[in-house]
UniProtKB/TrEMBL annotation, chains A, B:
Cofactor(s) this protein requires: Mn(2+); Zn(2+)
UniProt-recorded name of the protein: Zn-dependent hydrolase
Transferase among keywords: no
Cross-referenced Pfam families: M20_dimer (PF07687), Peptidase_M20 (PF01546)
Native species: Enterovirga aerilata
InterPro entries from the UniProt entry: Amidase_Cbmase, Bact_exopeptidase_dim_dom, Peptidase_M20, Peptidase_M20_dimer
SUPFAM superfamilies assigned to the protein according to its UniProt record, in alphabetical order: Bacterial exopeptidase dimerisation domain, Zn-dependent exopeptidases
Binding site for Zn(2+) 1: 77, 88, 178
Cofactor binding notes: Binds 2 Zn(2+) ions per subunit.
UniProt superkingdom: Bacteria
Residue numbers binding Zn(2+) 2: 88, 116, 372
Amino acid sequence: MAKVDGERVLRDLRELATFGAYKTGVHRPTFSDEDIAARRWFVGKLEEAGLQGSIDGIGNVYGLSDGPGAKILTGSHIESQNHAGWLDGALGMIYGLEAARAVGRGVDVAGWCDEEGHFGSFIGSRSFTGLLDDDEIDRLANKYDGMPLRDALAKAGLAGVPRRQVEPGRYKGFIEAHIEQGDTLISSGLKIGVVTAIVAIWQYRITATGEQNHAGTTSMSRRRDAGLALVRLLAEIDRRFPELAGPRTVWTTGRITLDPGAPSIIPGRGEVLFQFRDADQAVLDRLDAELRRLVDEANRTGRCPMEIEVMGQSRPALMDETLQAALEAAGETHAPGKVLRMPSGAGHDAQYLARVMPAAMMFVPSIGGISHHWTENTSDEDLVLGAQVYCDAVERALNG
Amino acid sequence: MAKVDGERVLRDLRELATFGAYKTGVHRPTFSDEDIAARRWFVGKLEEAGLQGSIDGIGNVYGLSDGPGAKILTGSHIESQNHAGWLDGALGMIYGLEAARAVGRGVDVAGWCDEEGHFGSFIGSRSFTGLLDDDEIDRLANKYDGMPLRDALAKAGLAGVPRRQVEPGRYKGFIEAHIEQGDTLISSGLKIGVVTAIVAIWQYRITATGEQNHAGTTSMSRRRDAGLALVRLLAEIDRRFPELAGPRTVWTTGRITLDPGAPSIIPGRGEVLFQFRDADQAVLDRLDAELRRLVDEANRTGRCPMEIEVMGQSRPALMDETLQAALEAAGETHAPGKVLRMPSGAGHDAQYLARVMPAAMMFVPSIGGISHHWTENTSDEDLVLGAQVYCDAVERALNG
């Protein structure tokens, strides 16, 4: 069985967390100086581990194992959300590195660039799986400071460097480790999550058009209040969705904007950003139909025409059954009775890898379920246990 | 009876509308170059009419009539909302000027500065009625470009000029003419509104505090969604207020802000600007109690603590019965059967004048009920009829 060095894993995680250290977390946006330094540091660690290290033309980090036979691809991502946690992404990188060291030949490691979306949407894993073209790269820019992606790549010394794409037949599969980012494991005393599917996210922009008017002189009966129309729709969603949702469905109104947004003016226009997530296509279809029914009903009975615009409808990504079995077997070996099969409510690079090879994910517990915040954390004990389970599962998958 | 020159009234209104002309309306913010020029032009018109014209240290324009006996104070305001209508304020100024010309001695005219609130809240009429101190003037600045009020006054040549305050015993009352800004008159074919009271505005900021979290990994049962808590409160207000409101009560949510306002983040904080208006103190008290009850209930049953902050609670201003009778008698003379007693849903300087003397207001119809927009308008016929009724009422009040 793969011999994991728990102290080494913790040491490497802590060293990676020095790049962009922020309070007890990190601030390491894609292609920031700290992020570029972290990528170079990681290439050095890969080479120390006997892998052939490189960074490709989209910023993906690779450590390739030599030798014959189909390999297991490991890894996650190196950059962080702004002022966020030290383990989100980093955990999967160091576990992959440890698997290469502990399991030996046959384990490749990858760090998918910009999973956190500072420039785009999963550009690293989409580039590797053939789903990102040069036109899109030309168009993308940093969402916070506006720097074009091309300029950021040049700053990182990657202008003109080829982008690496998946080599057919090289891999038996991809296994990504990640913190759970929720509280399912921690609140049940469980230790390992075996991801069954990565949920789809269906994102909508709903707009209502009313009539901007004076809030004092316009009688209630004459008003066409776009804000009130949206409040009524959201109240109906709140009433209906629990009846139609699956056990793990989530739905969220992230933003409500009323125009012009002044205390004494009836809103003439309103906009809502609304999304739901589930791993079950039937649930997604049912909620989409209900949302459209509620908007139609509002248009039939209300006085503010509403429009619904689809901003994104990803597909659920099912995880490979054989790799899930390897993770579960490894989990039951090291944490008997503390393994749970569960969907991932967050998006991950594994959802794109799943399109070109068998893919799976393993979760470790998140203290308080917190993520995307610098207080994100996992106990040392769980970090070491997770590394052991992960490396064991990679070895099983490699030899299975 | 006062002999009104309808053509002169229309000509003066149109000339005033050339100061800051914007499409078919005007853009004449307080102390803009156009506004200062309009004030000076108006002083000239007052002097042509035989009044003693001046501008005081807060920017109020005055035309004072000589001779003995208690006088009637007329007027309204000269500046406009941004990119707004040509009659809002201007109508009452030109009607006042016409009353001085048509009725003769005993009619004073005033243009209250900044009724539209570019710098503060009714600073002109509050200065005249003794409700504005120098400290407040020191603190106020333009809401759009930040220029301190003191600098704007200096730019207008008014630094160091004394502020005029009401002279005890000089007036029998104040009568302000204004466009209705609603559609009550126009939609009923009526011509003259006699204002019974100016409504009070009770303005609130309601905040909910939840827990910012990941919209994919945080189960519905664990969420503390500040946005959803506010949507539920607003839906309850929408359900309960119609049962408790008076026939003319209005209530408005002008702004909803969710923090951080991102599609995939559960709002950790939300804020709503909510107001209601009525002329009846009992209704105001009832709605305030209900709003507080709903917030208390949300705090008892919900998971996101809410706070309610009073931003303003003005009092209803009752209009003087004798002056209302003068307006009604004049209205019935020139537009028999087309006069309506009604409250004003908008605030006006008359609500401050009412604190120091008998005060009244007269409305003319607004086409489409539109105001605070450059398409605001009233037919020439209604403008001339309104001038006749107004001047007749001023004469009756003066001699009554």
